[in-house]
Amino acid sequence: MGAGLQDHGLEQRVLDLRNLVKRLKAELSTHDRLEVLNALPQVQEACAKPGLLRTFLAGLTPDCEYALKAVLAIGQGGIVFRCPDQNDQCFERLRTLLQQLIVIEKFYGSIGGIIGYQLEVLQLILEQAQQAKSSDRQERFLRPIGLDISQDTLEVRQARWVGLARMGEMGEIYPVGGAGDRLNLIDDDGKTPLPAARLRFAGRTLLESLVRDLQAREYLHYKLFNEQLVTPVAFMTSEEKDNHQQIVSILREASFFGRPSSAFFSFSQPMVPVITIHGDWCMQDVLQVHMKPGGHGVMWMLARESGALDWFANQDRDKVLVRQINNPIADTDGGTLPFTGVGLEESKAFGFASCKRLLNTAEGVNVIRERSIGDEVYCGVTNIEYCEFPKHGIEEAAVEPGSLYSEYPANTNILFADLNAVSEALEICPIPGMLINMKSEFRCIGPDGREQFCPAGRLESTMQNLADALADRIEETVAQPEDLCLRTYLTSNLRHKTISVTKKSYELGRPIEETPEGCFATLQKNYHTLLGDYCQMTVPFVGDKQSYVRGELPFIVHLHPALGPLWEVIAQKIHGGSMARGAELQLQIAELSMQNVHLRGSLVIDAGSPLGTRDGEGHTVYDEDGGKCRLKNVRIENEGMDQEKQKDVWRNDIVRKQALTIVLHGNAEFEAEDITITGNQSFEVPAGHRMRLLASAQGFEQKLEAIDQPTWYWSYQVDDEYRIML
Fold it and tell me: Where in the chain do CATH 3.90.550.10 domains reside?
């Protein structure tokens, strides 16, 4: 057993800590709480021994002294403060450790600080060991019913319109503090581990992909309402793998993506100790506790304490969309617009963008939970994490016999939140969804200095379970979920348009799901549907996901999200034509007209300013002066990609034999009609000019002319049934 509170069993340790937390909460000052700790035998014994700790404690402030003695109080002093040799390095490490402990003590103050943290972990370990189901309240679960945004109905289009029209009420929060341990990201020097935000997917970092999706929605809003929007974005970072500084570096390297630096706000989540299955703290080295980020459930309280909620309020943004960084397809076909539209139109407090969940996967589920607490019944849409299924009696049952999908839909961590409701919920539940997952083994150093590996984890929490504190009190239980009118809600969409994550690196022979390769295959599947079914283009057959790791590339497509982002908009810009097997189509442009274009090989169009112009400070101004391209009845034939030299195509590191490349600077325009373009060709058009390729006896000829204003641009309208027409 562990070196916890003397020789008691786990149950006794939990009882002792519970009583200690209760006593400490009754004291009003740090001085009085210190008196409680000083009376504990384990604290007295440790402080009586000559050595590093006793020397270090002398002269500390009460807050610092309390943080150190809290570790003694939970019985971890022999492990945490073990130091065979006293030297300057030990004192320096102890100072660093003290700073970490102070942060934990302060942040987790609502549950009892370090001692409360230890209590929560031990209680969760005990629950898992006993496979305990909730016993303090009765609960039952219903499958939630919500708007199916995959359907092209008037209700969905109206919700989408509301989400678009009321974007000015929204902010966004991105939890970007993930360590990305399973991605094995290493810097160019081959030594420095990198966080998940640095993963380069489809030619850009995951962070840039999220911002581009946002800018695409802002651009669509501009085209319909002639209004400039700069949506405020808050990041929750961490200190894991220098994550916070990496996020800052990405923003600076990208010149804040053409946005004012004041449009971004960052706050860092605390690092917390990893604790073994026996309830002991993991040590990486002498006086160095193994720390990991404490889960994204701390996001809401951090947003309040850091001033992020006030920052949103000062910009009249009282609703937010939450997206995780490792799911780059979450906004496919503008899917977040009808999702947020429902929340805005129906004044909801909290919402989940959901989809089907594959059976036996490490995904949580969205449910309607009805629970009785005393004589009162509460009901709401919430999340149950997959590691919590046994606790709540949830089984891996199919939605119908023979189905690959589970009874309950997947939690995707695409969330809508009313910030006033968030503030209300934080008073009830400051750290939602606390849980512990002992699925990994960690290297630990015991009080005797011996190393061992054992199952361990840290106190995690889940941002989506803030919904638990927003459940509605109802008069009686209901038979059908559609009979409920709740503050929480859910929408459903096709899985391949909602979630495909980049959690871990791909290993040959292993499943491709949750890898960048798997996410890339999903992305290409979506483009196949878009081009084939919506744009009426003849496209090659797409095989299974593994074809992309086998080097069998049916095609590669990358489109700038502002080309739509709605597929019904893209279908009016691209129509007809064909792509041969192995073709590559890269369209980094918004103002495009591509009619009946037949591609055999590679076509790359790169508009340096796809969304408009930049003001004197380098900030994007949405207007009609972005790069433009019109292609009609054009055949493009070149050798394209070198299929034998492709590696990590998901990064968009494409090796080409030949390509047609069109580069547009500023407001440059390019046009071609009724011609065939063969071989390796590159056309670069300077700002303030239009290049036209005109049919001639030799094939075509170039004509470059100066322009002082756009010769054309798309005008967006909406009809009576909320369809967007160009």
Answer: 133-497
pLDDT, tens digit, for every residue of 420-473?
A: 999 999 999 999 999 998 888 988 887 777 888 899 999 999 999 999 999 999
Q: What element of type H or E holds 378?
A: strand 376-384
Q: How many residues does the chain have?
A: 726
CA 322 to chain centre: 8
CA dihedral of residues 252, 257, 259, 260 (deg, nearest 10) = 0
Residue 155 burial class via C-beta count within 10 angstroms: exposed 0-12, middle 13-18, buried 19 and up: middle
**What is the distance between the alpha carbons of residues 140 and 514, in angstroms, rounded to a whole number?**
31
For the record, the structure tokens of 47 come out as: 């402080």
* Cα angle 326, 328, 334; round to 5: 140
CATH topology of domain 133-497: Spore Coat Polysaccharide Biosynthesis Protein SpsA; Chain A (3.90.550)
Q: Is the pLDDT of residue 128 over 60?
A: yes
Rounded to whole angstroms, the Cα distance separating 110 from 98 reads: 20
Q: Is the pLDDT of residue 254 over 70?
A: yes
Q: Radius of gyration over alpha carbons of the chain, in Å?
A: 28
- Write out the DSSP string of 539-587: -PPP--GGGGTTT--SEEEEE-GGG-SSHHHHHHHEES-EE-TTEEEEE
Is there a contact between 567 and 333 (Cβ–Cβ < 8 Å)?
A: yes
CA 54, CA 71: separation in Å to the nearest integer? 14
CA–CA dist 244, 266 (Å, integer): 8
Asked if residue 565 has a cis previous peptide bond (ω within 30° of 0), the answer is yes
Structure-derived torsion over alpha carbons of residues 697, 702, 708, 710, reported in degrees to the nearest 10? 70
Give the C-alpha separation, 378 to 501, whole Å.
33
**pTM (2 decimals)?**
0.94
Query: What phi and psi, each to the nearest 5 degrees, are found at residue 112?
Result: 110, 15
CA distance 542 to 557: 12
In terms of DSSP bridges, do strands 669-678 and 612-614 run parallel, antiparallel, or are they unpaired?
A: unpaired
Residue-wise burial string across 412-433, b where 16 or more C-beta atoms lie within 10 A, e elsewhere: bbbbbbbbebbeebbeebbbbb
Cα–Cα distance, 386 to 405 (Å, whole number): 14
- Give the separation between CA 46 and CA 76, rounded to whole angstroms: 11
527 within 8 A of 554, measured Cβ to Cβ: no
